[in-house]
Amino acid sequence: MLAPSPVIKKTAKNALSQNFLTSVAVCCIFIFIYFACSLTASLFSVFAANIGFFVAFILFLIFALSPLALGVLYYFRRLVWDSEDSALIMFRYFSSVKEYKRALIFTFLLFSKLAFTAAIIFSPCIIIWLLSNDAVYEAFGFSLPIWASNLWALNSFVGIIGVFAFVFITLKFYLSPFIFISNDDIDPAEAVNMSTIISKRTGGDFFGLVLSFAGWILLSLFVAPLIFTLPYFVASYSVHCRFAITAYNRDVDRFNSVVTPSYSTDEF
Questions:
Q1: Is residue 192 within 8 Å of residue 166, measured between CB atoms?
Q2: How many CB atoms neighbour CB 167 within 10 A?
Q3: pLDDT tens digits for 189-209?
Q4: Does 32 score more than 70 pLDDT?
Q5: Are 268 and 184 in contact (CB under 8 A)?
Q6: What pTM does this model have?
Q7: pLDDT for 205-232, tens place per residue?
Q8: Distance CA 268, CA 226 (A)
Q9: How far apart are CA 26 and CA 204, in angstroms?
């Protein structure tokens, strides 16, 4: 059992108070670039409708926003460790070909695992959608059966279950970005693997932390509050990850297991 959410959030507030304006600036820059990418992607919808926007946004997400998000997390990770950095440190993974390549490898690896998980979980929804779609039957010269027209209700139910299943299953990856940015020498695959191991003990605590931000998340739907809520959440996430990894390493040392993998405490 880790420190409760109020303790983690209080620790995050203390860290933010040391360099609040820079933290807000980092998040504002990220939010601005995010909306700039979204606006640019929307221009592609003029040529290729929704598919154009979707493809363009995915490319922006992988090649620009994801490395930038890792840089934002790197800033907050150092802030939790009492470092006072310039906002420009958020562009760390664009500073060299080596760093950018590492960030892309990690991004592709994590996205592929998430996409594979989503494909498995939501495959029943896809099958039901195909069975209840007029266009599918018309392509084969048939009319939509009466029984198939009522499948939309089942699809909604299966979809809701799929969303909850996806959230709980992918919780095992939640530590991987933090582990990746905390060690310049770690292999991206190792970062993901260590997350799946440590999260078995701490995934429930992190889910509880996210739920404690429910009010802040709803407030952020108005966009403007994001400049305050985003630093608060990312700082809290960083504090939680620090506690989670420290607790894991302490348990490994306590049981003195030679077969249980551990994460280098030098970074924490």
A1: no
A2: 11
A3: 999 999 999 999 999 999 999
A4: yes
A5: no
A6: 0.89
A7: 999 999 999 999 999 888 888 999 999 9
A8: 28
A9: 29
- How far is residue 48's CA from residue 57's CA, in Å, rounded to a whole number? 13
For residues 224 and 35, the answer to whether their CB atoms sit within 8 Å is no
Nearest Cα to 123, choosing from 151, 162, 167? 162
**Maximum C-alpha span of the chain:** 68
Lookup: tokens for 55: 């493809």
Burial classification of residue 262, based on how many CB atoms lie within 10 Å of its CB (0-12 exposed, 13-18 middle, 19 or more buried): middle
The b-or-e profile of 58-84 (16+ CB within 10 A means b, else e) is eebbeebbbbbbbbbbbbbbbbbeeee
Backbone angle region of 142, left / alpha / beta, with phi > 0 → left and psi within -120 to 50 → alpha: beta
In angstroms, the CA 240 to CA 198 distance is 12
Q: Give CA–CA dist 191/200, Å, rounded.
A: 15
Q: What is the DSSP letter of 267?
A: G
Amino acid making up residue 74: Y
User: For residues 228 and 237, what is the distance between their CA atoms, to the nearest angstrom?
Assistant: 15
- Can you list the pairs that 134-142 forms with residues at least 24 positions away whose Cβ atoms lie under 8 Å? none
Query: What ranges do the domains of the chain cover?
Result: 5-267
Q: How would DSSP label each residue in 51-104?
A: HHHHHHHHHHIIIIIHHHHHHHHHHHHHHHTT----GGGGGGGGSSHHHHHHHH
Q: Output the CA–CA distances (angstroms, integers) from residue 47 to 38, 52, 53, 126, 234, in the order listed.
A: 16, 7, 9, 27, 37
Residue 145 DSSP symbol: P
The upper half-sphere exposure of residue 222, i.e. CA atoms within 13 Å in the direction of its Cβ, equals 8
Separation of alpha carbons 93 and 96, rounded Å:
7
